[in-house]
Amino acid sequence: MGRLQSTLSEIKRHKTAYLFLAPFMLIFTTFTIIPVLMSIALSFTYYNMLEPPTWVGWQNYIRLFLVDDVFLIAVKNTFLFAAITGPLSYIACLLFAWMINELRPKMRAFLTLVFYAPSISGNVFLIWTIIFSGDSYGYVNGFLLKWGLIPEPIQWLSDPRFMMPVVILVVLWLSLGTSFLVFIAGLQGIDRSLYEAGAIDGLRNRWQELWYITLPAMRPQLMFGAVMSITQSFAVSYQAIALTGFPSTDYAAHTIVTHLIDYGNIRFEMGYATAIATILFLTMMFTQRIVQRLLSKIGQ
Amino acid sequence: MKSKVQPKRINRSLGGDMGIILVLGISAAFMALPLVYAISNAFKPLNELFLFPPQFFVRNPTLANFQDLVILMGSSWIPFSRYIYNTLVIALVGTAGHVLIASLAAYSLAKHKFPGNNFVFSLIVLSLMFAPQVTAIPNYLVMAKLKWIDSYKSLVIPAWGMSLGLYLMKQFMEQVPDSLIEAARIDGAREIRIFWQIVMPIVRPAWLTLIILSFQQLWGVTGGNFIYSEQLKPLSYALQQIIAGGISRAGVSAAIGVVMMIVPITVFVFNQSKVVETMGASGLKE
């Protein structure tokens, strides 16, 4: 009783805090929490948006893993894709932020813009469809043909051997986004005196400095960057569709999210589509947990 | 601007410096070349766009592509200014609301230890961990239930409650010294004043960054599943329709790419210069 009462008086004491939080939480609940719960619930139903949902139990999940071959291709592609772009984009964000931070302010501002610009340039990444265009007008093909390196144009965007690498390259080009900015802010916030102390304690070069001082000091930003990299690398779809078409040749660039779009936006099998979404959700959560555990070892 | 004293270069070797400059130079070229190519394309006359072998730089620069774009805009079914107005409303109202609402909530989470604080924050962190695609379908159902389909609200209001902004603001606000806030409380300042006149000015780099992120995201929205009336469609949708015209619109598409890219980059450059300035000057580090 006493505990409940003290909690109540705590709540009363902080009523301004709740008031400040309220607008955000209202929106957040409506557009994030409720949809996630709905998505999980709908994944156990058959639902086509015209008739009310009917309960089908685990049937959607059974179909996903045992019947739907294309889903398995999508899973394979997504994991391959995430395993390459996730770590690479994370390391690229960190290394470039760190290197840029060594420069003088003017140069630093300029290079920050150069590295960050692709990720905010919207559809400009479509220029890669011209660069990798399958005819001889494509920049890469034109170049290779001119120098006699290939006898005929390569179908970069519709030959299954090249589609995935090209999409990976373009996504990496676009990946120096939010995490990159946050890393730069984090690096600039590190207390200079730590480095002097480190030099006295016997740190010999910039790599030791990076591992023993810089990285531990920006652990919150590193955690945040990891969260962003994982989320983005599992969710790739838009760039893949824009570059290789939808559906792509032999489903060579088909990902879990493209599969989700297929069933959600085209076939209107909402129950099945939300089952795909739930699988994606669980995969992301699971990976996040593992990576967070790895990152807590930095500087030890 | 007070120029900061260049910190003593400890633990730095010349070889390492050269290596870094080399790596940065090559990577910067890889990052910049496609953009330069895109910009250069916008000024190419049609015959240069389809040249073999393809030319990287423009030889006879022309504004014809931009003129074509203006003509196409003038002949659209809905006056083109309407699309621009739509995008501006969505991007400006969305960004302003997001910065304000997320900052208020962040202040509450960072500086008030109320019951439920940790629970709410772990929900926010959890929500950062999955992509919006996961909730796309139920989100539509929620919008339909609220009767917000085909209205700005469906794009603007969810943007106010994005967890990324709250997370960023909270991280920064935690670094604001408690002593400052305590002192203001003793002076009798109300919470809203402490928030607006003490905390927000100190975390200026944070919300300037947040403006960049939010504006850039909203600038690119096409309305997708939520907006059906032509009068309410945003600019990037209208321009995509022009690009969809195919090969004959190649020149205009290149011009559109440049137009769409200039605005977020301008916002970034403008805000970033302020961010660096305030980071140097703010008393964020105790």
Give a quick account of the main beta sheet of chain A: strands, pairing sense, barrel closure. Answer: 2 strands, antiparallel
How many separate domains make up the residues of chain A?
A: 2
Q: How many discrete domains of chain B?
A: 2
As an assembly, this protein is heterodimer
Average pLDDT score of chain A: 87
Give the helix tally of chain B.
13
Radius of gyration of chain A: 24 Å
Number of helices of chain A: 15
Structural class of chain A: mainly alpha
Low-pLDDT runs of chain A = none
β-sheet strand percentage of chain B = under 5%
Description:
- The complex is a heterodimer of chains A (300) and B (286).
- With 300 residues, chain A is mainly α.
- Chain A folds into 2 domains: 1-42; 59-126 and 155-295, MetI-like (MetI-like fold, Orthogonal Bundle), CATH 1.10.3720.10.
- Chain A is 72% helix and 1% strand.
- Chain A has 15 helices and 2 strands.
- In chain A, a hairpin with a 7-residue loop joins strand 1 and strand 2 (54-55).
- The two termini of chain A are 45 Å apart.
- The mean pLDDT of chain A is 87.
- Chain B folds into 2 domains: 14-62, no CATH class; 71-281, Orthogonal Bundle (MetI-like fold).
- Chain B starts with 13 loop residues before the first helix and ends in a 5-residue tail after the last helix.
- Mean pLDDT of chain B is 83; it is low at 1-6 and 277-286.
- Classes of the chains: A mainly alpha (300), B mainly alpha (286).
- At the A-B interface, helix 1, helix 2, helix 4, helix 5 and helix 6 of A face helix 1, helix 4, helix 5, helix 6 and helix 7 of B.
